[in-house]
Each structure stands twice: as structure tokens, then as C-alpha cells.
Queue: 3 jobs
Job 1
Amino acid sequence: MNKKINPMVIRSVLAGILIFIGIALFQASQYQVISMLLVIVACIPIYYRYEKKQLNIKELVMIAVVTAIAVLGRFLFYMVPAITPMTAIIIICGICLGSEVGFLVGSLSAITSNMLFGQGPWTPFQMFSWGMIGFLAGLPWMQKVLGKNYWFLALYGIFAGLFFSFFMDVWTVFSIDRTFSWQRYLALLLTAVPYTVSYCFANAFFSCLLFRIIQTKLQRILTKYDIK
């Protein structure tokens, strides 16, 4: 895979900032506008990547396959709250394939899996959250650290759970109050502690369990089909 990080992917980080800008610029009832802006910004890396380069069908198929595997992981464990290997698969894809693909797999897994679990204004928040989890795991220095040490990999899984839960609670506040309230946000964080703890340790467990298996398979695919 190409290890060069596309500047347009870095700009996707601004999607999170849009939430707080939206709080200041839009009326409380217009939180849907914030979500739509997030969708647009989250999709920029996807469109830009394939608009500005010669389409690599093999790479595209690989991204589609790993995204499907991530979605399957969420579906298979849907009966167990907060327990899913999808986040771990996104993390591993970021480590093995780089930030750009990590973001693509994360954001695409969110919108694709929600075709089964339900789309809504919360979808762009999930796209950004899971996308950034894959993006950060694919940073060059993070690849080196996470790929060699299971303790750091487990810690990153815990961090990913906290990041996702904290970020998604922003959406929950919007959906309840139609504006942002720190009191409501802190209350939601406290009431969600059991769920968040379960999710964090599930991420750590599945990341360590699946890392070598998925890494070996992906390296074999990259070599066999000469995907740069």
C-alpha cells in the first residue's frame, strides 16, 4: 500500500470541529445540518482518492472485502451489547494498510452496517468516529508501536472505546436536547460507564486476538496481487 498520507484525509479531522461550529452557528433545531456536513466531509477522502488517481481495482476490492468482514463482525455480535470485533478489525486495517485505508474502512463500515441496524442522523457521527480510529492507528509511528507490542495494542483498543463512546454521546445530547448541554453530556457519560467499559475491553481483546491472523492474510494479499 502507498504509505503517503493524503492531505485530504487529514482535512477530514475537521469534521469533528464542525460539530462545535454548528452549535454556535445553527439554531438548536438544526442539528441535522451538522450531521449532513459531517457526511460530506467524511466522504471527501473517498471521492478525492479515486478521483485523483488511476483506479486500482485490486485495492478497491480488498477495501470492500475488509469492510464487509468488519460489518459481519458487528452483525454476528449484535445480540451482545458493547461486544463487537468491528472496531478491532478497523484498528488492524489501519495498522496494516495505513491511515487512508483505515479511515475508509472505518467510515464505510459504519454506513454499511447501518443498512442493517438503521440509518439516521447518528450515522455521520459513527462514520467519523470509526474512521478516525482507523486513521490514527495507521499513522506511521502508531503502526510501529501497535504492530510490535500487544500491550500498546490493547491500550489503543481501550482508547478507541473511550473515544467512540465520548464522541457518540455528543450526538445523544443533540438528539435529546436539540442543543449541547454539558450537564446532560456528563450525566450520559456516567450512566454509560458499564457499556463503555465493556466496549473498551472488547476492543482490546479482539485487537490482540485477531491482529496476527488478519495481518498475515493482508500481507499475503498485498504481496500476491502486488498492491502498493
Job 2
Amino acid sequence: MLAQQRHNAIMAQVHAKGTVQVQDLAESLDVSTMTIRRDLAELDELGVLTRVHGGATLVTSAHEPQFAEKMAINADAKTAIARAALGLVHSSQSIGIAGGSTCTKIAQEITAQPELTDITVVTNSLQVLNIFHSDLKPGVKTLLTGGERTPSDAFVGPIADAALSTLSTDILFMGAHGIGEKGLFTPNLHEGHTNQVFMKSAREVVAVFDATKWSVTGLMRFAQWRDIDTVITSNTITDEQHRVLTDNVNKVVVA
């Protein structure tokens, strides 16, 4: 089993049980306790669980990591997802890009494609705006909503909602704090509502997330799977997770 697959399995058990023990994890994953301790140390450093004596516990669902923390988590998987998402982007489109590290990776991929022209990007993410402005790519117009700034550098709340409600995009790339059988979650209620308004403004909604988001919850479910047209996720999802997606979403891309 690859390290990322172990991390995914560990997080699934943490979210199912709340607290897990090193010995139990080692037996269920058929690896040494030393390997599990190393995995828990790495996951604790990423901020997705908390190490305790002999095991680990769940991080509170209300915790929202800073943007720099998010960019460091599963960077390779996010890059693969972003490159797969690029296949849905075409010249002469209006493109919505929500906040989050995976969505920021998509912005980076778009700026690296000189053949893409006549694009209007609508975003509520300061980081996405910075990507396009630092590149100064000709043929790309960027519109930024105002609003209340979150720890992950997204603008949310009534001002953002009002701006997005008047706009329309061909496609929207949307991330999530957490994913489950019932849909997409966020710990920020204002961000959840802004995400819903953003989704209503798009003709096609594409959810982008890596497999470690599975079983992570938040205060608000802002989307059910029926609200999503396409999912792009990492190749470390389990067979059961893939089944949930294919049973509920029209198109699933594993990057």
C-alpha cells in the first residue's frame, strides 16, 4: 500500500471513530507500528488530525486552515487534478474559479497555456486573482468579488453573494473543505452560502478535490451530489468512494 493510500485509510478511520490507536491501525493496514507513527506525524503536521499518546484524534470540523497550509497538503495530487481540469477549459469561455488550493492550481495551469485567449475569469479568491495578475496574461479578464475575507483568502458573505448573483459563467471549478456520501462541506457558513450562489451562476459545476477530503465534515453542507455535473479527484480514492461518485455524478475523472 502506498503512503497516500495509507493516509487516506487512516483519515477514514479517524473520521469514523473520532480516535484511533497506533496498534489497531497497524493491524488493519498490515504495516508496522513505526510506519503508522510516521504516517500520523506527517498527517499531524498537515493539520488534518491531532496526535495523542498511542494514537490520534479528529481535528474539529470548525477548523479552517490558512491558505499556505492548504497549498502544502497533497500538492502533487492537486497538480494532477488541475491538469485534468484544464481539459475542460477553452478559449472564449467565462470561467468561475472558487477559493481553495486546488482551484488556485487550476488558475496556474490556465496561465501556462498561451493558446487560451478571450477568457473571462470570475473569482472570489484573492489567490486566484494574484495568479492571473502576476502573469499578466493577454486575453484574460479577471473579475473579483468583494466581501469578507476568510483564512483561505476567499471573499464571502452578502457583498460576494450580490456580485455573483448578477453574473453567469460557462463552467465553475469548486473545491470543498470536506467530502462525504451526502455531498460537499465547509466549516464557514458564509462561504457555504456564497458557494451556493456561485454554483447557481454556472452552467456546469465541476467539483475538484483530492481523496483526503473524504469523510471530513464541516458545519454546513453547501452542495449535494445532484448539484454537481463533473468530479475530478485523485487516484488514491477507494473503490467504495469511486462507487459513490459514479452512482451520483454524471462524469467522474480520476487524475
Job 3
Amino acid sequence: MKKEQLGELIIASEETLYRVAKSLLYNDADCADAIQEAIVKAFSKLHTLKEDTYAKTWLVKIVMNECYAIMRKEKRIISLDDYQMEDQAAEQDDYSELYEAIFKLPEPVKLCVTLYYLEGYSVKEVAQILDVTESAVKNRLLKARAVLKESLIAN
């Protein structure tokens, strides 16, 4: 794959990358940082991509790894003022009840839901991206459906 093709893929995958980052990181600024770092790494490590057909999956994995790196760095100890500001900002955003319910899911389950339902990856592709078995993905999706049904009905 050439750098021009990677650039086109990044532009075409913009929403996917954001949703994956948002499923791991709550703060939009952190999401943007993770995506930017992933793009830089993708261009610098383009030679490690073995097959062009897996380029989008490869890019998603890089974004996930960058999100995990940000989470490790920050360990999220924030002041009360920062918490209140984030709380006010969250109230101003118009997130649907479903999106909020998805965000409250445990991390591995949330990633499965995002990749399978929002991004349209198959169970096999999700399993490859997350380095788990297909049955683990199916179990996580089953668990997510049950939790989402319960939480959305309660609201």
C-alpha cells in the first residue's frame, strides 16, 4: 500500500476511528489525540502492513492501542472542578440514551458492540481485531444485548 492510498483510507475511515476511540475514551480531546498519534504511527509503520486488504483493521488496532496508551498515562485522577466542567459539557452534548448505555458497558463488551453493530465488522473480523475467539465475541455481544435491553427498558 502506498502513502496516498493510506491517506485515502484514513479519510474514508474517519468516523470509524472516532467511534472506536470514543468507545474507549470519554473525552473528545483524548480521542483526537489518539487518532492523530495512530495516523502518525500508521504512516511511519506502513511497511509492516502485510496485506492491503487488512489495512482498515490494522488502522483500527493502532487507534485502540493509542487509546490504551492514553488511558495508561492518565489513570484519570481529576479535580472536582474538572469533573463538574466535564459533567456540564456532557449535559450539553446530545447523546442518545443508547449511546450512553453503550458507554457504560465494560470495555471489552463496548468494543465488540462498537465494532460489530456500529462499524459493521463480522464476528470473525471483530475476533481478529480484539485477538479473541469468535465464541468470545458472540458471548460479549449476547451479554451486551441483555444489559442494553435491561438498562434501556429501565429508562
